[in-house]
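Model it.
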Amino acid sequence: GRPSLALEACQEGRGHYPSDPEILFQEALARTALGDIAGAEACYLAAMAPQSGQHFASLDVGIRSYKSRHNLAVLYRDQGRFEEAETQWRSA
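Modeled.
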């Protein structure tokens, strides 16, 4: 319920684990709540990217696939980017 504080916590976490999918997913949720749609999109795409380097022990494998794809599709739909939304939902 406090997206500004959530965003700060995510940014601090990404200072230690910049490519951690779970942190990126949570940051995307916070950015969406704050109206930063472009930032949320970038976080979802990064959460689904192949991993390299250190990352925190993310346990929810859905974040790297269908959960991020679904949320990304919702962002695209809300922007009227229907073909991109459909692509993400089909991939999910």
